[in-house]
Design a protein that fits this description.
The complex is a heterodimer of chains A (74) and B (218). Chain A is mainly beta and 74 residues long. In chain A, 9% of the residues lie in helices and 23% in strands. Chain A is built from one helix and five strands; from the N terminus they run βββββα. Helices cover 27% and strands 20% of the residues of chain B. Chain B has a seven-stranded mixed beta sheet with strand order 1-3-2-5-6-7-8, sandwiched between helices. The chains are: A mainly beta (74), B alpha+beta (218). Chains A and B meet through strand 4, strand 5 and helix 1 of A and strand 4, helix 2, helix 3 and helix 4 of B. Strand 5 of chain A pairs antiparallel with strand 4 of chain B, so a sheet runs across the interface.
């Protein structure tokens, strides 16, 4: 399934202004998919299901540079 | 504070974060091994690097000025780093840096320099710690990348713009190998973040490995 990256998604934020991963977000092939069916964009998030942590989310599958590099010889 | 050789983990914060960490924090175990012979932050980061060179997912830990690693954590998933929220470390007065690893694999031959999200995290933890934590470290098999907010913290908007510039410059440059591509990206990150007051450096190192011995804290 072709999915887009949710670059314009309106995230709720916590007391520090950090974006909260919405409830209903799920994993698909190692990537987080928002309830609206779009990919969670790279960024810094908190997850109410895992309190006490901050997540630096930056999967290579969403990184154009990683795609270019993967196409080059070593 | 927990014993440094074991957990080195304290719960002193009361800034909205739960004191009950549900999962994914680990005893620092072998990361603080050998410290009785003396240690310092550079040695701690190199211990972290060599032990994380054996891992295929990202871990994070806080580093203090005495050379100890604290609050080892991992989400256990590729493509993301779980970091213990700073509010749980407010009693660790000497922590100044967050280290994490950039794994490499067949698809990605180098760990590479910082992502935009890495530097956005540095912004947040610098803010939350009132500037006490001003350093972000990314370790990789090729060496160690270090980013330091020297004085004034730039806004997230400026950070994102600088990182977009670094990415665009890298995309525009034609190179004939992935290694040159990532080295070029590293140079562009150094240049673009330098323009907004974040000093980035890279130290090339051998791909040494040490066994990581730890245990999940339940």
């Amino acid at each position: 399934m072709e999915r887009t990256i949710a670059n314009d998604y309106h995230f709720q934020t916590d007391f520090s202004g950090r974006k909260i991963i919405p409830k209903g977000t799920f994993l698909e092939d190692g990537l987080r998919v928002l309830p609206n069916g779009e990919y969670l964009p790279s960024g810094v998030y908190v997850d109410e299901a895992r309190p006490g942590y901050v997540f630096i989310y930056s999967p290579p599958e969403l990184d154009p540079l990683a795609r270019i590099a993967a196409s080059l010889p070593e | 504070m927990g014993g440094r050789g074991v957990y080195s983990f304290s719960f002193g914060g009361n800034q909205g974060s739960s004191k009950k960490l549900l999962l994914d924090n680990f005893a620092v175990g072998s990361l603080n091994r050998g410290i009785s012979k003396g240690t310092n932050p550079k040695a701690a980061i190199e211990r972290f690097r060599q032990q994380m060179n054996t891992q295929n997912v990202e871990f994070s830990g806080y580093v203090d000025s005495n050379g100890y690693i604290h609050a080892l954590a991992s989400s256990g998933s590729k493509g993301e780093t779980g970091v213990v929220d700073y509010s749980n470390l407010v009693n660790e007065k000497n922590v100044f840096a967050v280290a994490h690893n950039h794994p490499s694999d067949k698809k990605r031959i180098m760990g590479g320099s910082f992502s935009s999200a890495d530097i956005e995290f540095l912004h947040d933890v610098h803010r939350d710690s009132n500037g006490r934590i001003n350093t972000m470290v990314a370790t990789a098999k090729e060496g160690t990348y270090t980013a330091v907010i020297k004085k004034n913290r730039p806004s997230v908007i400026r950070i994102k713009k600088a990182m977009r510039n670094a990415e665009s410059l890298t995309e525009e440059t034609r190179v004939n190998s992935a290694r040159k591509f990532w080295n070029n990206y590293s140079d562009n990150v150094i240049s673009e973040l330098g323009k907004i007051g974040i000093t980035v450096s890279f130290e090339k190192q051998d791909n040494k490995k040490q066994k990581l011995v730890t245990q999940k804290i339940t």
